[in-house]
Amino acid sequence: MSATVDAQGLSCPQPVLMTLDKIKKGSDKEIVVLVDSNTSKENVSRAAQSQGWEIADVQENEEGYRLTIKKD
Amino acid sequence: MPPGDLERVLCGLKFPTDPNLIVGLDSADDAGVYKITDEIAIIQTVDFFTPIVDDPYWFGQIAAANALSDVYAMGGIPKTAMNIVAFPVKDMDISVLRKIIQGGLDKMKEAGVVLVGGHSVEDSELKYGLSVTGFIHPDHILTKKGFKAGDRLVLTKSLGTGVINTAIKGGLASSKAIEFVTHLMATLNRDAAQVMKGFPVHACTDITGFGLIGHVAEMVVDSGFGISLWSEKIPIIPEAFDYAAMGLVPAGAYNNRKFREAMVDIYPSVKRAVLDIMYDPQTSGGLLICVKKESADDLVNKLKGKGIDDAAVIGEVLSEPKGKIVVS
After folding, report:
1. Which of A16, A59, B134, B201 could hold A47 in an S-S bridge, CB 3.0 to 4.6 Å?
2. Shortest distance, CA B246 to any CA of chain A (angstroms)
């Protein structure tokens, strides 16, 4: 079970800040981030990559996007 | 409004014509120009927005510098202005508005502009700006067209105000970055405009909400030329690169990219954060000056001599590919 960051309904930079917080806690190797705009999807991807994480999966659905980010 | 939306609103509407209207709505330029006599034309422009910095006095200065910029970009001299104010009277102390207007007044004084009036409304969201009128000789108007292959592009302010403002919203911006961007946005484009008058300048615009690439796109469309932008030469506000790389890119930058990416060719070597900054919407951005190739370095040196330290040659006009922006 991956950790989840639910940033739906929030505008930037909030989804980025929540993702960075979760990453910096350091207890997870995989995090699922839920966002509802292209801006948030793009920015969360940049945030994860800037911390050395990779974007393992991006799924688009009716509510927005579901990103799975991973750290080796 | 996001790029494209306004075009859809205005598309097909019939606007009155007048032989003395030299620059009007059809040319997507920075301001309108109307000829009074063979020697004098008036330039008119209006701009207002919601606060982008916490300090009301600085916000007033920035809003005024931003509104005045369109006149400078066309080669004119601003002379009169009117305040535009929307203020939440019930929720906010009136002293805040006083500081904003004081900031605007000080910037107008610096520009040699006289305030002749204004209009205020009660609104849930604070907004401030100016309607500005300036003068120009009808034969000396600078627009976004008129450049030639080989011309160099000179930018007079660093990019990244939108990224820094996003970092400020997130509480992540350093005090150094905040101070830099606040002063940069409040800086008039007057000195840059004065310096360029002594050079063979073929076109000019200012960089604002559509970002560098969005404004270059307006130049390129229907021009018969292409424009090359050199990503490594672009002046960037300290720390904006790092903030963009960590995902503090405003929605406006993505909107700008979506609207224009079909006409942009990007070399694989271009860093993503720099590209994001090239789409970043600017508040009170610098002038983008198209100058004859041989004069470009001299222009930059003269700008630096006037204290415009960020000035740089950032690209050139290409004969091919027509209608394209090439980012290398």
Report:
1. A16
2. 4
Question: How far is B182 from chain A, CA to nearest CA, in Å?
Answer: 20
Domain count, chain B: 2
A13 vs B244: CB contact, 8 Å cut-off? Answer: no
Whether A46 sits inside 8 A of B246 (CB atoms) is yes
Q: What is the mean pLDDT of residues B132-143?
A: 95
Record: contact A45-B247, CB cut-off 8 A: yes
SS3 string, B246-292, reads CCCCCHHHHHHHHHHHHHEEECCCCCHHHHHHHHCCCCCCCEEEEEC
Which of A17, A20, A39 is closest, CB to CB, to B251?
A: A39
Q: Could you give the ipTM of this predicted complex? A: 0.93
B106 and B38, same structural domain? yes
Chain A residue with CA closest to B254: the answer is A39
Clarify whether residues B236 and B318 are in a common domain.
yes
Q: pLDDT of B205-250, one tens digit each?
A: 999 999 999 999 999 999 999 999 999 999 999 899 999 999 999 9
The residue of chain A with its CA nearest to that of B256 is: A39
Output the pTM of the full model.
Answer: 0.94
Of the candidates B169, B172, B249, the beta carbon closest to that of A43 is on: B249
Task: Please tell me whether residues B268 and B169 are part of one structural domain.
Answer: yes
Residue B8 structure tokens: 């859809």
Rounded to an integer, what distance in angstroms lies between the CA atom of residue B164 and that of residue B177?
7
Residue whose pair of structure tokens reads 């102390």 in the numeric block:
B93
Domain ranges, residue B118: 15-140
Q: What is the pLDDT of residues B23-42, one digit of tens each?
A: 887 777 778 999 999 999 99
Q: Which domains does chain A have, with CATH numbers?
A: 3-70 (3.30.110.40)
Q: Name the residue in chain A with its Cα closest to that of B172.
A: A17
Domain assignment present for B8: no
Q: Judge whether A55 and A48 are in contact, CB under 8 Å.
A: yes
| Distance to chain A for B170, nearest Cα, Å | 6
